[in-house]
Amino acid sequence: MQIDVSKSARQEKGAGQWQHSDKFGSKAPGIGTMWYPTGMGKTFTALNYIVNPLLDKRPTSIVIILVHRDELKKQWKDRIGKFVHRRHRSQIVVQTVQYYIKHQTRTKCDLLIVDEVHKFYGADYFTYVNGDNIGWKYLLCLTATYTDKDGRHKQLEDIGCHVTDHITEQEALDNGWISKYIEYNLAVKMTNEEVIRYKEICEFVDNNLSKFGKHSFDGANKCLNGKTIEKDGIVKEYTGFDYCLMWANANGWRKPKFDEVLTEEQISINAMWNPNVIMGYAKNSFKGIRERVKFTNECLSKMNTVIDIIEKFKEYKIMSFSESTTFANRLSKKLNTKNPDSCVVFHSQLNSRPLKDDKGKYILYGKTAKKAGEVKLFGLKTLKKVYIEKFVNNEVRVLSTAKVLDEGFDCEDIQVAIISSRSRNYNQQKQRKGRAIRVLPEAPDDYVLIINPFLEGTKDQEALVAAQSKSTNNITWVHSIDQIDFDPNSRNSFNDI
């Protein structure tokens, strides 16, 4: 139900609930988690309604903001420059947890802010949240995906850091705090050659996995990687070969005794179920699974479909997500070949390359460089900065990325998001959609289009169904781009959520 309250008023209310969090069961006021949907403004809420008041009241306080990626570190610093009073900025430290782990840092602060806290549920990272390595008086955790399938989020509650404010996506949509969106699942038809290749990969996987009985995937995984089992307080570690030997014995294999002559049947059984052969089945199973994932992520038919989508919505700003840096690179290259400087690519494995100046000419090495006069090559750090700025500043229309921008990337005027490939993870799908549903102040009623191309009848389709398993909005399944109807200004194009 829609509530007549502004976004800023709702953010301020959430900050107030955190400040008085003892009534929610926390061990003290000022300890808790804000669970907001992507686009709700967690960063702004923390800086404007918590950090500024704290430093106004106690100017000598130290605030540490802990992130899990360098990109988030840069974004927080940018936001601090916009929202925090100049006189207080020196009291704020923004750092990655990886830096602290590498340097075995132990420190203290008055307020610790942990961004994307769901990324810190692992044992090593969580020691920088629970007070072991960073001593804190106040703790603010921020996330859009609080719950963990393994229940690891409960460790926050164990240290008194309960959810003090939860805004659902539905509440944010109803109140216009995030952009309304329509979502399509678009079936991609493979070529005959692609169908044959996909079937070959699946047959290879099935033939090897079938050797591991009813629970084939789990069995193959144990035979490849082993497993640690705890029972009645006793911990036992089994290697992969231990499991291969167990499975071999269970299927009739046995090592011949000295001078023993085996029957033809026993020789046949030993040839099929030798522990080393079983290990080969396990390795081949996962080799095939990796090949199948690579195929569905990088399928040429899917890429051509994504290009067709971009061509259809050529008036809109578009962000394409994929699981593969190869796909991201190829998509960018194809788009720029057809329409120069229409797309930039962004991921963690960019190769050094030249850049052009404002006049469209390649930048050269300066007179003092050994390669004076030659075309200058720029590294990963510079390229990522330049490419993101080009997209944010509307110098290019399309951004092609692979996983690295799933979280923490803010750009308010994205109109179309294409999720080209995916894992089965619902939180990942939610985070990717969240990159696009940020309300433009000058166009608060505009809609955003989300398109999920998938290879029909494949594991890619199964992954999409799993990734959308908890979704509450209407999703339209279509078999043609022509069936996708979108006008950002028209309410008629919106499927009510």
Summarize the structure.
With 497 residues, this protein is of the alpha/beta class.
The domain tally reads 3
Quickly give the CATH architecture of the largest domain.
3-Layer(aba) Sandwich
Number of strands: 15
- Please work out how many helical segments DSSP would assign: 17
**Structural class, please?**
alpha/beta
Order of strands side by side in the largest beta sheet? Answer: 11-12-10-13-14-7-15
Q: In the CATH scheme, what's the topology name of the largest domain?
A: Rossmann fold
Task: Please state the overall shape, judged from the principal axes of the Cα atoms.
Answer: globular
Major sheet description: 7 strands, parallel
Helix proportion: 25-40%
The CATH class of the largest domain: Alpha Beta
CATH superfamily of the largest domain: P-loop containing nucleotide triphosphate hydrolases
Compute the separation of the termini in Å: 12 Å
Strand content: 15-25%
Mean pLDDT: 88
Runs with pLDDT <50, length 5+? 23-27, 491-497
Question: What Rg, in angstroms, do the CA atoms define?
Answer: 27 Å
